Amino acid sequence: MTDQRSDAAQADALRAALTRHLVAEGTIRDERVAAAFAAVPRHLFVPQSSLDIAYADDVVLMKRNAAGVVISSVSQPSIVALMLEQADVRPGDRVLEIGSGGYNAALLRELAGPKGAVTTVDIDPEVTDRARVVLDDAGYGDVRVVEADGEFGVPEDAPYDRIVVTVTAWDIAPAWSDQLGAGGRIVVPLRLRGQTRSIAFDRVDEHLESRSTTPCGFVSMQGAGANYERLISIWGDAASVSFDEDQVPEEHPFDGVLDQPREQVWSGVVVNREEQLSDLQLWLASTLPGYCVLSAERSLQEEGVVTPSPHWGAAAVATGDSVAYLTSCPARRRPESHMELGVNGHGPDADDLIDRLIDQVRIWNRRLRHGPGPRYRIDAAGTELPAGFHIDRRHSSVTVNWPE
Ligand SMILES: C[S@@+](CC[C@H](N)C(=O)[O-])C[C@H]1O[C@@H](n2cnc3c(N)ncnc32)[C@H](O)[C@@H]1O
């Protein structure tokens, strides 16, 4: 009994500390989100973990597939908080969560209040069974848990004021737009050209317009909405370039292109190591035909086959026989905190590809780096699109625009 009491007191203290930390670092700004974090006992949603792990600002991995890839997790509190800030759930809202775990559904339940309603859907029966048990144990028995492919939403509880997707999506499924009520908002980790950002979209007439974005990482969607990326080996199993489904070229670099002599050019553009470069990557994707993302095992860095990129998954461009990719090295001034961006190239077109990448890195640096970042708009596939950079998905088109 005494042990149980002291565990409960410790959980309360750790939860309060986690909430204070998220407020202090500016991740939580809305006091209603802070109150929800202070109220929901996260340890009950990860009963296999110690209290310290339950209240660390870290993801708790729940399940891997046969290949060892994580397919289910209880998300990292700071990502959950950022997405709840984006969602701006109001008392009385009807909310759909896609991808269950229990914890975020409980937070949504707190935010929607007694007059609201929360439905959470997961494709994996193991996840929904567990979510049902932990939600009941934590006192959130009125969250509806549904086992289904979230690609199709949950029509019987629609329309929703808010849809919060907690799994990486490549597209906005038609069901999500259809089930979103007038004035509704959808928050979704959308993967575009190899990077994922959580985007809050508001319904505006027949289309969706972005209101805020934040970089994030989630497990990949399974089911009907899966598999939008194509990997092409360029060094056996150890390095590949990936293209989105809508941009796989007929000709792509051959396996072994990294064996060709390396050309290297530095851009003079220096960035802080902490700086988010996902907008730079999307700018390169918007402006360079043949854009792809190069990934390589760490051992290739150690062997000197590739040099480090500023992020895992380097922005790259490829032609039929050549590839060039973004790299970085410690900056001459403040090398401990800053790096210079450069480009490596291999193959007969290397010089041309390098020039094109370097030009766009410099343009981004001059015109866009300190701007508000891109805006996104979603229209149904096949409709007339506004001006901008278009990414065609199976069901929708994403238009990206860059206010300077
Ligand atoms: C990151 S976890 C969700 C975390 C959760 N929201 C929480 O409270 O921490 C992602 C979940 O999405 C689920 N998922 C993957 N594809 C799905 C789909 N098509 N429909 C519904 N759920 C899906 C996975 O089974 C996994 O449990």
Automatic annotation (TrEMBL):
A GO biological process held by the record: methylation
The keyword Methyltransferase is annotated on this UniProt entry: yes
Single GO molecular function: protein-L-isoaspartate (D-aspartate) O-methyltransferase activity
Database matches in InterPro entries: Methyltran_FxLD (IPR027573), PCMT (IPR000682), SAM-dependent_MTases_sf (IPR029063)
Location within or outside the cell: Cytoplasm
EC number annotated for this UniProt entry: 2.1.1.77
Highest taxon of source: Bacteria
Enzyme class of the recorded protein, top EC level: transferase
CDD domains, alphabetized: AdoMet_MTases (cd02440)
GO cellular component, one term: cytoplasm
Keywords: Cytoplasm, Methyltransferase, S-adenosyl-L-methionine, Transferase
Protein name: Protein-L-isoaspartate O-methyltransferase
Species of origin: Kribbella capetownensis
Gene from which this protein is expressed: fxlM
